[in-house]
Structures are given as structure tokens and as C-alpha cells.
Amino acid sequence: MVKACAVAVSAILGLAALAAAPALADKGHGLFNRADKNGDGFVTRVEFNASRAVMFARLDSSGDGAITQAEIDQARKAFRERHAHSAGKPPVTHNKQHKTHRGFFAKIDANGDGRVGGAEFAAAGDRMFAKLDNNGDGQLTKEEMPRRHKKPAGATDPSATPSQ
Q: How far apart are the first and last CA of the chain?
């Protein structure tokens, strides 16, 4: 479950970085379609790595060849503002996922220096691709992409058992 959450967080983070269309906030297929450059319905490792390189460049707002937690926070804030504006809502100032992203950053910062360089980012992408490629065929399909589902307002957790 934790690994699945980490993959979903990474995909969401990718959406934040690549958010050309704010309405793609929770649509993993938007990320898939942008990565599938030749439109064949599959994302190869080459296409995946190319999309990750674009993501890295956009996250590296200082242009110093490394991403910091502050740059990720800045990208997430900008994404939340764009998404809220497109939905006609005030931007969210804090949420529980923010802490999760800090844990995600620590996981990809292999040498613990507070900066994620290109090689660390690429290694994290390789691990993510391997986890997403469920059948091990070296390419991803839309079905293999993580999806983020929102619970309808007022819905209850079906796994919770009612007290008797």
C-alpha cells in the first residue's frame, strides 16, 4: 500500500510539474497522453524518461541542475492555485499530502544532501517505471497508470464496520 501511494504521489507530482492543463489534477491518463509522443497507446521507457526529463527541467526553477524541496513546494503551490482557479474555488493552503511529498523527496534524495540531481531523479524514474510496468513488457498502458479517486461528498468508508 505504501509503495502504491508513493507511485501515485509521484504521478501526482508529475502532474503538478507538467500541468499545462489545470483540469488534469486527478487524471493520470493526461500524463500518459503527454508521455505517449507517438500516440500508439503505449509509453515506452524512452518516452517515459523523456517526460521525466521535461518534468525535472520544470521543477528545477533555479536552473542549477538539482531540485530542492522548496522548488517542489513552489511547483505544488502554483499547481494548486491554477487548479483552484480553474474550478472557481479558493486555493487550498495546506493539505495532508504535503507531508507525504516531503517523505517522497527524502526517498529520491539518495545521498541525503537536500538536493535531487538528475541522476537521482532518473533512478527514481527507473524504479517507478518498473513498478508501473505490471506485466514487465517494457511499456506502459493506460491501465497500468495509477488513478486517484475522489470519494463523493458524504460517502462513507465501505471497509468500516458499523458498531453494533
A: 29
Measured CA to CA, the distance from residue 63 to residue 157 in angstroms comes to: 44
Residue of 13, 102, 1 lying closest to 59 (CA atoms): 13
List of residues 6+ apart from 144 with CB closer than 8 A: 132, 133, 134, 135
Contact 16, 79 (CB under 8 A): yes
Q: Which residues pair with 116 in a beta bridge?
A: 67
Domains of the chain listed by start with CATH number: 2-144 (1.10.238.10)
Q: What share of the chain is helix, strand, coil (3-state, %, to 5)?
A: 55, 5, 40
* Closest listed residue to residue 20, CA positions, set 67, 49, 54, 63: 54
Indicate the pTM of the whole model. 0.65
Can you give the three-state secondary structure of 76-92, one letter per residue? Answer: HHHHHHHHHHHHCCCCC
- Displacement of CA 102 from its chain's centroid (Å): 13
β-bridge pairing 116-117 and 43-44? unpaired
User: Mind listing the pLDDT tens digit for each residue in 51-70?
Assistant: 999 999 999 999 999 999 99
